Amino acid sequence: MGNFKVCIVGGGLAGSLLANGLINNGIDTIVFERDEESLKREGYQIRLGDPALTGLASCLTDSQLESIVQRLGRYSGSTKTAPSICNTRFQTILDLSALPTYSKSAAINRVVLRDLLLGPVVTKGKVKFGKQFSHYEIIKNGPGGSESVKVNFKDGSSEHCDILVAADGSGSKINKQIGARNLVDMSSHLAFLSKGNATKARLRQLPPRLLNGPTLTFKNGISLYYALYLPAPQKTGGDGKQDDGFDFDENQASFYWGLNVPRELCPFSDAKDIPNRRQFCLDIVRDWAPEYHVMLSAGASDEDKITMTMLRASTKLPKNWRERLQAQNGNNAEEGHPRVWLIGDAVHAMQPNRQVD
């Protein structure tokens, strides 16, 4: 496409997937990632539904897509399932997989998926690491009225492009500069997230119900999401019997849970002062069935990996939001400009327990 160039700020899931699609269709594209290439991330779980797989297929080559499909988790022999809503006695109230209109999905580790998506872009030399976004400018190129976008970074460097794509997550600076400002902190709740290895010994302790799919539990503003990631069965020769039917690589299997707690249930003015996050979570569900105590205690012997985070949500932008901004701020060329696009969490913040639709 001649000299047409796209800059993507953010090398996460959305940014790296789009980069693959553009590069595979001959469009000059470069990704700017704030983290250093050597940084090792810890990833939680994400679930991919049919629409997400369709999106992947439209951007990736067949071999790239197959590498992702092979890493999708399995539940009782099936890759796709849906959560069950349980009460606090761990009784199933509603199995969402039984609803024909509910989109089923498959689990995969976020970091594994991100590496599979970003890897081909890195191989092509189209990723610059250690680039923290500062701001962008709309540049007028001569009297003819043609425009470009100048992307500025905190290290003083810059890059010119025809289209700037914001894939910089739910804390997006580009979202603020362009004037969308539709991302909001959910100060009403605290979110506790945890993951760990789902060894075969651990699976024998966890409720067997979890082998069928994720569970969701709600009570008085509290919500708990719990899911396993079990990789595809290993290919074994002979007739060797697998213990308890668990035929998978323990190094890849994992559990993940997220507990959202109303802020008023925290006795500390600053939630960072909670001395023992696991015990706090166990106290929140102290009146729930014993199964929940076992579930939240999984991995307690490991180094504590319970993360507390602030959830973010987003409001839907009106179709004419760009026109409104340009009409209100005619002297500010950057606000609402059509050469700046928003994708992924930079415009639609997704909670950790949601799937990609």
With strands numbered from the N-terminus, the spatial order across the biggest sheet is: 5-4-14-15-16-13-17
Name the CATH class of the largest domain.
Alpha Beta
CATH overall fold name of the largest domain: FAD/NAD(P)-binding domain
Mean pLDDT: 90
Number of helical stretches of at least 4 residues: 9
**First-to-last CA distance:** 30 Å
Regions with little confidence, pLDDT below 50 for 5+ residues: 237-241
CATH architecture of the largest domain: 3-Layer(bba) Sandwich
The number of domains is 2
Rg calc: 23 Å
Helix percentage range: 10-25%
- What profile does the largest beta sheet have? 7 strands, mixed
Multimer state = single chain
How would you classify the helix and strand content by structural class?
A: alpha/beta
Q: Into which percentage range does the β-strand content fall?
A: 25-35%
N-to-C series of helices and strands? EHEEHHEEEHEEEEEHEEHEEEHHEEHEE
Shape: globular
Pfam families: FAD_binding_3
GO molecular function: FAD binding; monooxygenase activity
Keywords: FAD, Flavoprotein, Monooxygenase, Oxidoreductase
Organism: Gibberella moniliformis (strain M3125 / FGSC 7600) (Maize ear and stalk rot fungus)
